[in-house]
Amino acid sequence: MAEFEELIELGSAADVTGWGFDWVADRATEERPPWGYARLLAERLRTASAALDLDTGGGEVLAEADTFPPVAVATESWAPNAARATALLYPRGVVVVRAEQDGPLPFADGAFDLVTSRHPVAPRWAEIARVLQTGGSYFAQHVGPASGFELIEFFLGPQPEARRGRHPDDEVAAAEAAGLEVVDLREATLRIEIFDIAAVVYLLRKLVWWVPGFTVERYRERLAELHELIVADGAFVTHSTRHLIEARRSG
């Protein structure tokens, strides 16, 4: 089990701050959604006058844009990510604000004509609608239902009720209830291949909501079983789901 222990140590020591996944580039692959969110985001930022990016992580996706509007703000709740995002975005004129997940957004009503997010933790539709100007848009890529559940259920067992969470139909209903009109919705199911147990440890440390309370010590036995499966099969296959959503405040 020397290889197993070495891989466990590698995954445990890897830096999990930010929203980049470069560390697992040679250890796991994931299909990308067909619509190209970063490109579409950049197009919308070019024509906005005041933009807000929610749950920006380390700012990596937002930083791919070639230009920003005169007013550009991003929020992030986790201090290490906020610091990382500030270092990346502030030199380009984007202000990063610490904002708690369950509190109101610290901005005036109608402050932005564009609100964006890539993989928000939980969209707060009423707050999104509040800070949007009339005619303004929310444009985002969300994680969909049962994303990564083959891996999640390997550790937690069947999760039938949780599989419904983040369903795009529910999000459309919630957006409309907040006074937004959904003008575009696209969905994709994407293949993920994980090639070693170090990548599993890294992902479960980074995506903390997948297996809440995950530690190597707590799940060492299951990790060892999964390591053997990966060695035998060459990869562990799971799937992510994504949806692109655009909603407009019409009144």
Report on the structure:
The protein has about 250 residues and is an alpha/beta fold. It has one domain: Vaccinia Virus protein VP39 (Rossmann fold). Helices cover about 35% and strands about 25% of the residues. It has 8 helices and 8 strands. An 8-stranded mixed β-sheet has the order 1-7-8-6-5-2-3-4, with helices on both faces.
Describe this protein with a few key phrases.
251 residues, alpha/beta, Rossmann fold, 33% helix, globular
CATH topology: Rossmann fold
CATH class: Alpha Beta
Structural class: alpha/beta
Helix tally equals: 8
Residues in β-strands, percent: 25-35%
Draw up the topology in text.
Blueprint: H1 2-13, E1 28-30, H2 37-47, E2 50-54, E3 71-76, H3 79-89, E4 95-98, E5 112-118, H4 125-131, E6 132-143, H5 149-156, H6 168-177, E7 180-194, H7 197-206, H8 220-233, E8 236-249
Parallel strand pairs: 2-3, 2-5, 3-4, 5-6
Antiparallel strand pairs: 1-7, 6-8, 7-8
Helix pairs in contact: 1-7
GO molecular function: methyltransferase activity
Organism: Microbacterium murale
Keywords: Methyltransferase, Transferase
What's this entry about, in short?
By secondary structure, the protein is α/β, with parallel strands linked by helices. Helices cover 33% and strands 26% of the residues. Residues 52-139 form the Methyltransferase type domain.
